[in-house]
Recover the amino acids of this structure.
């Protein structure tokens, strides 16, 4: 089975930065698309960013372009989300996801999430 584990969340002040990590295990992830989503209290899950094979697929949601950046580790089993200029409205549970498709409409595998809280 595929396991995804997020880490790096926490409490930060507005304007600060966090770097989230997602570690994948159980299969070789060289050909998997990996992405980041978030879900704020009372809100729908929101797509943030995704990356596939090197040079094959990269996407960032318009709402976070210029502030959030996705990147994969060299081994391709880890994906990061660098978050800068954080705002209180960024407060949410952040989820890592993975799928075999290059640009998946739905992701098959999900982590348990990591809480990000941004204070004033």
């Amino acid at each position: 089975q595929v396991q995804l584990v997020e880490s790096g969340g926490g409490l930060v002040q507005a304007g600060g930065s966090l770097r989230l990590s997602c570690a994948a295990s159980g299969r070789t992830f060289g050909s998997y698309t990996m992405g980041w989503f978030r879900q704020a209290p009372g809100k729908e899950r929101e797509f943030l960013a995704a990356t596939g094979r090197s040079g094959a697929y990269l996407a960032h949601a318009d709402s976070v372009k210029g502030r959030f950046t996705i990147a994969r580790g060299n081994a391709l089993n880890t994906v990061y989300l660098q978050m800068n200029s954080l705002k209180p409205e960024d407060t949410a549970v952040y989820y890592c996801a993975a799928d075999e498709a290059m640009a998946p409409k739905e992701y098959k595998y999900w982590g348990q999430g990591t809480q990000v809280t941004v204070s004033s």
